[in-house]
Amino acid sequence: MSVIISLLSCKRSNKIVPQTYRSIIDDVIANVKVDFEEYGMEEELLLNLQAKWEARLLETRVADFARAPGSSSSPEPGEGGGNEGVSPNSTIPTNPVSSPPGPSSGIFPPPGQGLALPGRNLNGGDDVRVKAEPSDDIMRIRGGASEDVKPVITIDSNRPEPNAAGLLPGDDIIDSDLDDSDDELRDDAEGGDDDGDTDIVFCVYDKVQRVKNKWKTVFKDGMIHVNGRDYLFAKCNGEFEW
Amino acid sequence: MSGGQSYYEFYRGSSIGTALTDALDELITQGDIPPQLAMRVLQQFDKSLTECLQKGVKNKTTVKGHLATYRLCDDVWTFVIKDPQFKMEGVGAGAETVTAPKIKIVACKSGDAPEGKKSGAKSNDFS
């Protein structure tokens, strides 16, 4: 029942989302223009970035993104960059449902080879994000000349490893509670999402109070992603029972 | 430009942040822009997003539910709420209730992001 209600009215209360996202994009693009110039980038690249960003955001369908009046700033810069090996604009809008832009757990690969996500556009979708390998490489590279990492690693892995009991040698029971919740969080983060779409809120907190099992929180400046939609709030009071 | 006040990076995990990082990934992979420039764009994103949220968003919300797990680590609270019920106060349009089986809340301490530990729970960066 409440689902129906929310479906009916959700256009209303997240109406602010498109305009806020619009202003974020415009502000970012306007402010990095000088940086693109400093790096000797052509302006078309900046427009290209904006177009890709907007296209991916549209894909998410987290809000009703009508073409806002202010968005006339060349949503399709015609791929004039010249060095576009892949032309993603041709594939992205055609199948907006089949390839959601990946989990909301923004994964930022390291520079260099870590950024290679080659198959994504060519193979038409499935985000195959193999991150572990590249970051290993980076670690090795960062290690520099002295490659004597091995003894350090063994020491390291010996110390925090005793997770078998969930306890570190010096830990008391409070810490084991934390470990448990950590595990649960991990379950929540990984097992809980069907299509890589986790319901999550990003915000800052003013207050977090607990009396017995009652928690009261004051959150601010939040972005809610729930049921595939985005909502924003300036302030959010939370009341939870543990 | 990049100096001065620091801003949280963890909003990069949001829909609009993910869209941006994916777009940047693509441009870097194609060799169109250097990673350092992408970093600069993301820093600007942190700033723009924070300011736009603070200035442009006025509406209030409440959330109730069963607190399944909680954690405080490095000034970042993480809550997992079972059966959360959000009441979004529409602007003059009446309230809207949104429910879900479960939601995770990642909350950094309000105020300026402390330099050096401004990442938040889910943040990653190019370094």
UniProtKB/TrEMBL annotation, chain A:
Keywords from the UniProt entry: Initiation factor, Nucleus, Protein biosynthesis, Transcription
Composition skew (Pro residues), residue ranges: 98-112
Basic and acidic residues biased stretches: 126-150
Pfam families: TFIIA
GO cellular component, one term: transcription factor TFIIA complex
Chain residue ranges for the region called Disordered: 67-196
Keyword Protein biosynthesis belongs to the record: yes
An example Gene Ontology molecular-function term: translation initiation factor activity
Protein location: Nucleus
Residue stretches in coiled coil: none
Broad class of where this protein is predominantly found: nucleus
Taxonomic superkingdom: Eukaryota
GO terms of biological process kind: transcription initiation at RNA polymerase II promoter
Keyword Transcription in record: yes
SUPFAM superfamilies documented for this protein: Transcription factor IIA (TFIIA), alpha-helical domain (SSF47396), Transcription factor IIA (TFIIA), beta-barrel domain (SSF50784)
Composition bias, Low complexity: 85-97
Regions of compositional bias (Acidic residues) in chain numbering: 172-196
UniProt family annotation: Belongs to the TFIIA subunit 1 family.
Protein known as: Transcription initiation factor TFIIA large subunit
Organism per entry: Kwoniella mangroviensis CBS 10435
TrEMBL record, chain B:
Pfam family, one: TFIIA_gamma_C
UniProt subcellular location: Nucleus
One GO biological process term: transcription initiation at RNA polymerase II promoter
Transcription initiation factor IIA gamma subunit N-terminal domain location: 7-53
GO CC entries: transcription factor TFIIA complex
PANTHER family: TRANSCRIPTION INITIATION FACTOR IIA SUBUNIT 2
Subunit structure of this chain's protein: TFIIA is a heterodimer composed of the large TOA1 and the small TOA2 subunits.
Protein name per UniProt: Transcription initiation factor IIA subunit 2
Species annotation: Kwoniella mangroviensis CBS 10435
